[in-house]
Amino acid sequence: MRSVSVQVGCAGLLAGIVLLAGCGKSREGITLAGSTAFQPFAEKLAEQYMATHSEVSITIQGGGSALGIQSALSGAAQVGMADLVKLPKEADALKSIVVARDGIAVVLNPANAVAGLTLEQVRGIFSGTIKNWKEVGGADHAIAVISREAGSGTRSSFEQIIGGITLTGDALIQDSNGTIRETVANDANAVGYLSHGLVNEKIKPVTVDGFSCAEKDIKSGDYKLVRPVFLVYKADASPACKAFLDYLLTAEAQELLHKNGLIQAK
């Protein structure tokens, strides 16, 4: 059976109802928008949920954590995704749950010999006071700093945890964790940061203050670059929306997140 979706305003977010051609039945639409770091994980969760809940159609969109919160407030999306150390004041008007915790990995190209940095060195690199890899034990070559755009939850969390960062004007700005990964993978002198659940063989995470962005060091509290993943929504969200949010905290959903690289909420 072919589903037909109807698009309306608000940056093309799906309308609340998806009509099923040829049968007269309807599926309630649930839209999540926001964090691009959590987006691929939300897509996996939605696919798994819809496999056993044919009465709903779930749409996942990115745009960044700030947009996710604003979308939930305006009603453009039923649920906003925000990976932030702390929710901003405007989110007080919304209910929230924490569905996972996520490490932020500082990543280099595999060709770079540097294996670890201190928190102070990371601050210096992204602020532009450290400009050459030889200053931190690497080759004599200028550092190419890759960062996220304003409004990104990953950037906000990274800068808040590191502290004292005024991003260097030389930084190349990318609009997603995926483009950060590809840029670093294609530049032997680049450094960036992204969700540890999206690290692959194309890039190399480094230790920070001697600890790795791995589950054991995140859970122990030794690795400091960690933020929660919030889902925010209005108190009068539909029963179908609330049922999906409840599902995200079940053992089945939490195990899916864990298998794909995130740390479980509890």
Topology:
Blueprint: E1 3-4, E2 17-20, E3 26-34, H1 39-50, E4 56-63, H2 65-74, E5 79-82, E6 95-108, E7 116-117, H3 119-127, E8 144-148, H4 153-162, E9 172-174, H5 177-185, E10 190-195, E11 204-205, E12 207-208, H6 215-220, E13 226-233, H7 239-247, H8 251-259, E14 263-264
Parallel strand pairs: 3-4, 3-5, 7-12, 8-9, 8-10
Antiparallel strand pairs: 1-2, 2-3, 5-13, 6-10, 6-11, 6-13, 6-14
| Oligomeric nature of the chains | single chain
Sheet with the most strands?
12 strands, mixed
What would the CATH topology of the largest domain be? Answer: D-Maltodextrin-Binding Protein, domain 2
Write the H/E string, N to C.
Answer: EEEHEHEEEHEHEHEEEHEHHE
- Report the CATH architecture of the largest domain: 3-Layer(aba) Sandwich
How many E strands?
14
Which regions are unreliable across 5 or more consecutive residues at pLDDT < 50?
A: 1-24
Distance between the termini: 39 Å
Structural class: alpha/beta
Helical fraction equals 25-40%
Average the pLDDT over all residues and give the rounded result. 90
- CATH superfamily label of the largest domain: Periplasmic binding protein-like II
β-sheet strand percentage: 25-35%
Radius of gyration: 20 Å
CATH level-1 class of the largest domain: Alpha Beta
Summarize the structure.
This protein is an alpha/beta fold. The protein contains eight helices and 14 strands.
